[in-house]
Amino acid sequence: MARRVSLVAFVGLPGAGKSSLCKELFESLENRANSSALCLIHVCFDELIPLDLQEKFVLIKQSKLEDEVEGASWKSTRRDVYNKIDRLVECLRNDIIDLDIFKLFGIEEKRDANVDHIILLDDNFYYRSMRYEYFQLARKHNIGFCQCYLECTTEVAIHQNLSRDIQVPTAAIEAMAINLQPPQPQELMWELNTVVISSKSPDRTDAVWDIIEKSLELPVPPLENRDLEKAEARLRCSLSVAHQADLILRSLVGTLIKEAKANNEFPTSKLPEFSRSVNSGRQSIIVAMREGSLKFPSHLAEEVCEEKKQELCEFLRSELEEKLKDQSPNYCE
Q1: pLDDT, tens only, 219-230
Q2: Which of 193, 238, 255, 199 is nearest to 219 (CA)?
Q3: Mean pLDDT throughout 227-241?
Q4: Alpha carbon distances (Å) from 197 to 99, 109, 209, 310, 332
Q5: Are 145 and 85 in contact (CB under 8 A)?
Q6: Opening angle at CA 218, ends 31 and 212, nearest 5
Q7: Are strands 5-11 and 116-122 parallel, antiparallel or unpaired?
Q8: What pTM was estimated for this model as a whole?
């Protein structure tokens, strides 16, 4: 019989206390009645993905600069970590010995066949898409999946980060806080198995153990019906529209600034302020898209093909110009 395995995704800002909570889970394991039947595996992404690479990617995304080299390196490194965890799960589920993988994750070669394995994914997972790929991994192997969201203000995270031996730059934490997409268990079925932990949460390890036990008892089922398949298709379409809109908005920022320069709409001294207003307007549109408060025309909301890109561009330009009217009264169309 295949071992039971569960993936636990820890979500939260650097300094929110994710690694500390993982340590607490290890310490509380010996007090559990079934401790001998459980094995915790701590996967610390900061040890697998260089912090300087993480910092560069977060700040690049925040500053709206395009850096394909850093972006590709970051994505490639995360994909490599994903593949290693995929292999780890395969080995644990099917009693396969892979000494390289076992050594990487600190697992002994000889293991009890009756032990359940809980893999603690200690990462920030600030984008929902980062977490969703591990939910898909759980579905692929028919194993458990749950999330632990450490709710924390940016100020507290920065303060706690400063007390750590290895610190994340404050600017990176601030940028990540802007982009953080908290779990939405009430709206997204795949995020249903989520526990929210705050600094004031009593018995927080008990709350995490409860959701881990639940995930072991109810592993993610394989994709077997059309309803789930359609739901995933809608999610992919939604992400595609948001991605296309983001690319178009990036281009529009440059276009509007160039037009303002060419038409001498502002004194040279005012151009930096106008540029900041354009970028601020773009960011507010991105936030509105993520929150669902920006309503796309119905025929653009589900898919953006080549024929519709120009129409989407015109729609977004109109939205951006409206933002500029509010932020820059002297803006001329």
Answers
A1: 999 876 556 655
A2: 193
A3: 59
A4: 35, 34, 12, 44, 48
A5: no
A6: 30
A7: parallel
A8: 0.64
Cβ proximity of 15 and 157 under 8 Å: yes
Identify whether the C-beta of residue 18 lies closer than 8 Å to the C-beta of residue 12. yes
DSSP structural state of residue 107 = -
Task: Tell me how far apart the alpha carbons of residues 37 and 299 are, in angstroms, rounded to a whole number.
Answer: 53
State whether residue 292 is helix, strand or coil.
coil
- The three-point CA angle 51-119-20 to 5° equals 55
Nearest to 323 by CA among 243, 241, 249, 240: 249
Residue spans of alpha helices (H) in the chain: 18-29, 45-48, 51-63, 68-94, 99-104, 128-141, 154-161, 170-179, 204-217, 226-262, 271-291, 306-327
Q: Cβ contacts of residue 68 below 8 Å, gap of 6+?
A: none
pLDDT digits (tens, 9 = 90+) for 84-134: 999 999 999 888 889 999 988 888 766 666 789 999 999 999 889 999 999
User: CA–CA distance from 64 to each of 10, 208, 286 (Å)?
Assistant: 27, 36, 12
- Alpha helix (H) ranges present in 33-164? 45-48, 51-63, 68-94, 99-104, 128-141, 154-161
Q: Which residues contact 127 (CB under 8 A, 6 or more apart)?
A: 179, 181
d(CA 332, CA 152): 41
Residue 162 neighbours by CB under 8 Å, 6+ apart: 15
Question: In a 3-state reduction of DSSP, which class is residue 31?
Answer: coil
Confidence check: pLDDT of 53 > 80: no
Residue 40, beta-bridge partner list: 118
Q: Which residues is 150 bridged to in the sheet? A: 197
